[in-house]
Amino acid sequence: MGFRCGIVGLPNVGKSTIFNALTAAGIEAANYPFCTIEPNVGIVAMPDFRLDTLAILAKTKVKIGTQMEFVDIAGLVKGASQGEGLGNQFLGHIRQVDAIVHVVRCFEDENVVHVDGSIDPERDREIINMELILADLDTIDKRLKKTLSQAKSGDKVYKAQALFLEKLHAVLDGGQTARSVEADGDLERDLLRDLCLLTTKPVLYVANVAEEDAVSGNPLVRALEEAALREGASVVVISGNIEQELSLLSPEEQKEFLVDMGMSEPGLNRLINAGYELLGLITFYTVGEKETRAWTIAKGTKAPGAAGKIHSDFERGFIRAETIAYEDFIACGSEAVAKDKGLMRSEGKEYVVADGDCLLFRFNV
User: How far apart are CA 81 and CA 200, in angstroms?
Assistant: First the structure.
């Protein structure tokens, strides 16, 4: 299972600046369109206070956190679905990510050119969304033509597929995303997955603001939030300039800087956590003196599947999972005390792992 978030947006909205801050990669952020051609990829550690706390309690020698991958994708312009600008490359790179982080410019700066000459978050958001929709329409058109031809044989599967494709086409042609279509049954779900439509990918909007608006936002942010709300999407407000400056400071200097700015944590922490939530992920922990580690799984994963994240033998020979909730572990201060108090549970194959569970797997192969 991949955990890739693609950072997209119009040229000069601050994508590369935010990517640099996320990864401390030092990619040049230039003031002209298409400065990012090939996508830059960075691995980002998840901020995780729970892991830190568990490691201290366990007096662990090694602490290993979870990670996410962020991809800085070339800026898009109107007409990308027809190949304008770097459109074909842009759309191809988006197909390879699991979720979209859409950076929208919400700051005024006469020294940073805007590809359309003015600042309008709702228009900018709509440009990219429409290009993704148009690209998906092209995909649907090609598949529908082929499926209608196959359906002439009278095959019920092809007929059902054609009906669903026509439904998707109508939704996209009306300016809505494929995310708004609810697939009914395995046939429709399988077809929707096989189509790899761009607008099925979950989206998180990032409002890139000036330093003075990092805490309270501005009218441009509120316009973006209203548009995102209609789509059922979330918005994270970040000042790319602040985050890039923070990335160059030591941990102690960062704390002082955040206090001076009136911020409780870096905006990038909120972005990373929001991306994690967007992908429908949760964290469980294995805790010990030798190693304390965070593991990433999808929400709804059962205990054997979680065990398989550690090693395939754990899943194959799964017997049970000895489970302590994070809050119980912290309240007790150790696994031994939690066990003495009856707070360690023995869970079987049907147990759905909860976020924060501290697990010890029993298996036999």
Answer: 16
